[in-house]
Design goal:
mainly beta, five-stranded antiparallel beta sheet, globular, DUF7661 domain-containing protein, DUF7661
């Protein structure tokens, strides 16, 4: 199962695999590519993921796209 997020208008998803969280970029054409340079702590709760992504990617925030939101 993938948890989907809008990270300052960039589509991303996170998957729990075993004991680790895996981060992916999502394209407009449904191509998913793994992000290897960001490590999400394995003990982070699902409810904390949006805040963690906001902390990591805060430099992409703008007036038009000020936040990270989970896409249901």
């Amino acid at each position: 199962m993938f948890l989907k997020f809008q990270v300052f208008h960039q589509s991303m998803s996170i998957q729990r695999k075993g004991e680790e969280w895996l981060l992916y970029r999502e394209s407009d054409t449904s191509i998913r590519s793994r992000v290897y340079d960001v490590v999400i702590p394995s003990d982070l709760a699902e409810e904390e993921l949006a805040r963690y992504l906001a902390d990591i990617y805060h430099e992409f925030a703008s007036e038009k796209y000020p936040s990270v939101t989970r896409v249901v």
